[in-house]
Amino acid sequence: MSGLERNADLRALNTLGLPAKAHHLARPATLDALRQLLAERDLSQPVFVIGEGSNLVIDGDLPGLTLSLAIDGMVKVKEDDSHVWVAAGAGVHWDDLVAWTVAQGWQGLENLSLIPGTTGAAPFQNIGAYGVELSQVLEQVTVMEIASGKVLHFSAAECEFAYRDSRFKSRDRGRYIITGIELRLNRQPRCNIDYAPLQAFFAQRPGEAVTPAAVREQVIAIRSSKLPDPTVLANAGSFFKNPVVPASLAASLQQRHEKLVSYPQPEGVKLAAGWLIEQAGWKGRRLGPVGMHSEQALVLVNHGGATCDDVTALAEAVCRDVKARFGVELEQEPVRMPGPTPNR
Ligand SMILES: Cc1cc2nc3c(=O)[nH]c(=O)nc-3n(C[C@H](O)[C@H](O)[C@H](O)COP(=O)(O)OP(=O)(O)OC[C@H]3O[C@@H](n4cnc5c(N)ncnc54)[C@H](O)[C@@H]3O)c2cc1C
């Protein structure tokens, strides 16, 4: 197979900076190149897909074939009086897509500004931030089935999106490679500024128009002040999902903890995992070379030289202490690779 790197160092392909190698790494830039790589691979070995590695915990070397898609391109597909449809390749850096659409004045992606990673990974966990999820603007996802090399399209409903979840992350994990997405954006600005800091910013400036560009600027300012930059301090963003617990448990916790941060949901009550971790005493605390960030307790950081075992030990300690104090189970957000499900 051409274009294969052997024993490729993956340290720069995972923002937690964990040491690992890919036995074979390829960066296909077209559907044909991807199909050829799949057809010629060793069928007894697994296939992995890595974007920019900003939501990964790599647990040792990756056997088989690792693909990092370089399929680029961002185009307007069609438009009507109210909407514009935009397509982008899986290899496009997500924030480049956001910046381009916002610069055109199209509304829909501004709250998702500055989320690290690739466009192809965005549907995998239905990325979300500041009151908006990708699922709200996604029209369809294009995939290649690993087993057959067939190209298929899934509508947003068929992607089975949920909070930080989709069919690609759950029941179809390892079955498809996302090669591109299509979005439906608004031509008229109808920005969502429900998130309290955004609301407060625009409330203080009644003369300032709530445009996609103005919201993007604020989102970037808020994110830059709150989240550690992985190029400075290695991390994979939020390390745990915000747990959704039964209303009865939330009510009893609220009685004991006046300041519990909670958001009612149709299926229960969502608790702020960062608050639980902080209350359990882990904010800014280290265990060996890893720790929970001193400003944002939800972010696990690698202070240098950490291995996957160090990350696992800290994650388990945090989960144990949160469970003991609040009776709440935390679930890890970043994907462990190689994971429990073999790719097909
Ligand atoms: C500082 C920081 C802040 C973050 N903030 C947010 C946030 O606000 N909201 C949020 O939702 N996430 C956030 N994240 C997580 C991360 O940015 C997103 O999950 C992002 O979509 C991951 O993109 P990636 O290309 O790095 O994917 P990777 O980490 O490389 O991969 C993640 C998973 O997606 C799969 N995958 C990747 N590409 C494809 C593809 N083409 N086809 C099929 N599967 C694929 C991989 O196999 C893996 O299982 C943050 C991360 C960091 C480091």
Automatic annotation (TrEMBL):
It is found in: Cytoplasm. The active site is at residues 164, 238, 333. Keywords: Cell cycle, Cell division, Cell shape, Cell wall biogenesis/degradation, Cytoplasm, FAD, Flavoprotein, NADP, Oxidoreductase, Peptidoglycan synthesis. It is an enzyme of class 1 (oxidoreductase). GO terms for cellular component: cytosol. It comes from the Bacteria. Its cofactor is FAD. GO terms for biological process: cell division; cell wall organization; peptidoglycan biosynthetic process; regulation of cell shape. Residues 16-188 form the FAD-binding PCMH-type domain. InterPro entries: FAD-bd_PCMH (IPR016166), FAD-bd_PCMH-like_sf (IPR036318), FAD-bd_PCMH_sub1 (IPR016167), FAD-bd_PCMH_sub2 (IPR016169), MurB (IPR003170), MurB_C (IPR011601), MurB_C_sf (IPR036635), Oxid_FAD_bind_N (IPR006094). It catalyses: UDP-N-acetyl-alpha-D-muramate + NADP(+) = UDP-N-acetyl-3-O-(1-carboxyvinyl)-alpha-D-glucosamine + NADPH + H(+). Its EC number is 1.3.1.98. The keyword Magnesium does not apply. Pathway: Cell wall biogenesis; peptidoglycan biosynthesis. Signal peptide: none annotated. GO terms for molecular function: FAD binding; UDP-N-acetylmuramate dehydrogenase activity. Cell wall formation. Belongs to the MurB family. This is UDP-N-acetylenolpyruvoylglucosamine reductase. The lineage of its organism: Bacteria, Pseudomonadati, Pseudomonadota, Gammaproteobacteria, Oceanospirillales.
